[in-house]
Design goal:
The chain is of the alpha/beta class and 409 residues long. It has 14 helices and 15 strands. The strands form four sheets. It has a five-stranded mixed beta barrel.
Length: 409
Amino acid sequence: MNKELKEALDILEKEKEISKETLFEAIENSLITACKQHFGKADNVKVEIDRDTCDFLCYAEKEVVETEDDVEDDCLQIPLEQAREISRQANVGDTIHVEIKSKEFGRIATQNAKNVILQKIREEERSVIYNQYFEKEKDVVTGVVQRYLGRNISINLGKADAILNESEQVRGEVFKPTERIKVYILEVKNTPKGPRILVSRTHPELVKRLFEAEVTEIRDGTVEIRSIAREAGSRTKMAVWSNNPNVDAVGACVGVNGSRVNAIVDELRGEKIDIVNWDENPGNLIQNALSPAKIVAVFADPEERTAKVVVPDYQLSLAIGKEGQNARLAARLTGYKIDIKSETQAKDAPGFRYEDYLDYDDDDYDEYDEEEYGEEEYAESEGEPVSEEAETAEEILQQEPEGQDEHDE
């Protein structure tokens, strides 16, 4: 039993996470390479390794010929006399296994065999690291800041280094070496020099993943993050929805006394986070997205994906936000192009009044008038309809003077 080899393989499997089967294959290939270097060819060389005891046997398959004069290639043929020393049952034309002593290899052959094993170990190590971080792609990991590479930052993720490009850094954030930060893995590429990992601090999914890690209700699916819009370093808007009517989606994300959201704000270095309720009704969703501004009316067009919003005069600047930030984030959050006007501006602006959306059909009113009133019912002098009761009253008034005259006489 080869204890030294077995212990070495156990250590490599534990530390490098490389399977023993891969290491056995590397040893086999290295011995074949050494034989090729030593003998000039290794087409007929075979290597067998016992997976349990780690004992290995290297041998060459040779054809038995009658005499030494019949041997054309020492690597492929062996005289009968020598073959009988290995196996007494050997006969001309048989193929026997001739053991190769690895200790007889020269220095160069041994060095080449060693290089083959080391190269295989390095390749497998890179492959293991690549697979490990490829599974974490589009996820958040914790890294340690190492150094600045120009304007980029090198971050140690444990078994591999990642690059935080300038375009993925939040403006104003400054990191010190050995500082621990959380980053979002954008992409993992497999290169000859090992995996190349690109990370980000500005991606909106960073905020989403942080909430998933912090809020239990999001992890178990009770609360869903339906939409998110972010301007890194300044403000984030997030729309949430609860699948359980007894669970308040916004309250679950905020936490007791704001404990949950404050932990994420601290990780994002003070970035403000607005959490609103998601609504399938576009009008209600836009109204929630523009909070904390108060809304008078919302006219949304789902087909055109546009919305016209009316706000009180004193709320116009709050609804638009600093440099238009609140309206811009609300538009990204809802997917609607939002036009905001104050009540005073909306009075003279088409599309911002309720009456602009009421349909009047004049033909219907004309038909109704013609059915209700005929031409013969209009008085020619006044142009107004005269009822039967009015005609009777007029006759009575005409008869009254005659009766009064008779009474006077």
